[in-house]
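In keeping with the milestone schedule agreed at the kick-off meeting, the structural modelling team has produced records for the first pair of proteins. Each record is given below as a sequence line and a structure-token line. The laboratory manager (R.T.) confirmed that both were archived under the project's standard naming scheme.
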Amino acid sequence: MRIIHRFYQIVNSFFSRYPAVLSGLVMYAYLVVSIMHFYVKTKAFPLGFYDIFTIFSALPFMWFLSVALVKIIQVRTKLYESEQQRILVEKELEIHQTQLRTMQETVRGLQHHINNPLAVIVLSMEAARKAAIGNNAVIFQLSSAEQSVDRIQAALSGFSKAQQYKTESIGSYCGKMISLKAMAQAQ
């Protein structure tokens, strides 16, 4: 049974790849049968034009059916290929969406762990700012630290809002680095 199934697969793939061969086989098989029928009838009694016409009248229709068969197989093959391409694109899109969701969840976790210490730093800087009234050097340092805290918060927010990403190579030792499109817009 396996041999028959394997033979069927080979024949099917051959005729799917070369539909004109199948079409030609069908048409010439019918032609051979028609010629044999013609010779058998000719030996039995003389034939008129109408008899010859009835014997060979199906040949144009066989040609039409052969052409239609070739076209149907070609359309079916194109449809199959386009469906395979669509499935591949869908799988790739699903993979990218899963990667993006994973990255966003990771960033949310980082935000939780980073925002708590940042809140403590911001509160401490407010207390230090009140204590350092009149000391411009300390106030300048506190302002610089405050800007750094704001940049950290903006970066984390940009990562969590990212809709697309791409990887960029940053060297053979480190691997790839994620570059977010939403980050460029936020800054």
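The second protein of the pair:
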Amino acid sequence: MRILKNIFSHLHIFVLWAMLSAMLWAWIFTFVTDTTPDKKVTVYCHVPEIKSTELAIRLEEDMPDGLKMIKVHSFDYVMFNIEAIDKGDIYIIPASETEQFADDLAGDGVKVYDCAEGTGIAKEFIGYGEEDYYLFLGAGSVHLEDGKALEVAEELLKIK
């Protein structure tokens, strides 16, 4: 009984150490599994549903030379760090939000989902909402000059 009482009296310390350990290992995992922006292309999708891991794997099958990875994220991924969204290379966003993100987008968008017809790209991976969606290249992309963002976007457009 005394042992249990001793354990429970220090439970808050054990929980604190467990939380700190989890945060440390999460940081290490992110550090080990990520790379610099010049070695990856990041795709942000502002859609209700996305199979980000599966889409990234599919896009990496025909990855441009010089890249280590392609990351696909929903906008929820940067919810607490919204400033990070302007560093994306490719965006898939609904028509109603194109003005809101105009400063972060380069050039004109390509329609990738037609709501009226229900047709679009990568529907196996992306669950679109009830409006048209467009693909844009990011104005702040480090891959605008070397063309790697455009190559990945072209590959994405091929997925039916």
